[in-house]
Design brief:
Helix 1 packs across helix 2. This protein has four helices and no strands. With 88 residues, the protein is mainly alpha-helical. The protein is globular, with a radius of gyration of 12 Å. Helix content is 45%, strand content 0%. The chain has helices at 17-27, 49-63, 69-72, 78-87.
């Protein structure tokens, strides 16, 4: 059985969900457990627009391309942002 973190992500050079969780934790300074990735932003303690800005700023160089910011603003979870980033 394949999990999200093991699924191939050719468009981003193999940037996995585990890589993403590590990026959120290390780059934006928000401790995140893999189980919280799909949680609504309202369920994440201290989530705010500054975290979102830091995330997009860190995510683009990590995946090697631009993130669709207009769509990111509509996302309701970090997992939705990850999916937008890896699929374009």
């Amino acid at each position: 059985m394949t999990t999200d973190s093991a699924a191939p992500v050719p468009a981003t050079g193999g940037f996995t969900l585990d890589d993403y969780v590590r990026l959120v934790t290390e780059e934006i300074g928000m401790p995140l457990h893999p189980g919280q990735v799909a949680a609504d932003f309202d369920e994440l303690p201290d989530w705010d627009s500054l975290h979102l800005l830091k995330l997009v700023t860190a995510l683009e160089p990590a995946i090697g391309r631009r993130v669709p910011v207009g769509k990111v603003l509509e996302a309701r979870s970090l997992k939705e942002i990850y999916e937008l980033a890896v699929t374009g």
